[in-house]
Amino acid sequence: MSDEVTFRVFRGEPDADGDPFGQMVDYTVEIEEGMVVLDVIHRIQAEQAPDLACRWNCKAGKCGSCSAEVNGHPRLMCMMRMDEILKETPEGAPVTIQPMKAFPVVKDLVTDVSGNFEIKKKIKPFKPRKPDAEDGTWRMAQEDVDRVQEFRKCIECFLCQDVCHVLREHSLHDEFIGPRFLVYTAALEMHPLDTEDRTTELKDAHGIGYCNITKCCTNVCPEHITITDNAIIPLKERVVDKHYDPLGKVWRWFHGAEEDKAAAPAEDQS
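RE: above sequence
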């Protein structure tokens, strides 16, 4: 059993100034049982518009390549079944497919996400403590290891970046690293072996204060990473503890002064 459904797909590419230029084009496609949105795009390419640009790879929800906005929501096209899409689409209305709004359009449904990889380079890398044993190995509690495993599921589809209002509506790409890279930073900060302090960068250059924890990033994550509660909020707490807690500042100053006093005799003896 098959039905014909109208899809309204963005077609266009940047103009001379780099701004998206194009229009929504309607395509009528025969839908069969079990199809996903990416199947529809492939059918349009095969039967009606061979020049329709679309990025994809695994078709299994693990490469993060086919990110787009289906009916206005950031999604992986390969993971959205057409029966579910048709249920949410008003009767008589077309299914809309557009490129991610937060990134520059290359052509049609393809966006330029290369800026994300430049952001990653600005984050301080992993800095392990000295080995715990003479054979060069470390000892870690399983609970501490488990805490960061969730963050490693990220497939860098950048749907969380796309839905984030700071990037999507206000285009503050130079001031805010976005939820994907707050997750990346959390994986480093919470690693039981890491000794690097990234709180100053989070507060200033990385703009963590822009996030107002609406949880929209968590809601769109195809890997079901609890981005807001498990990554962003703990990082915010670390920034507050380090830079805004007056008692914490006094404690660190006093603790540091005591360390200096303890180190002084050793320096004199040397």
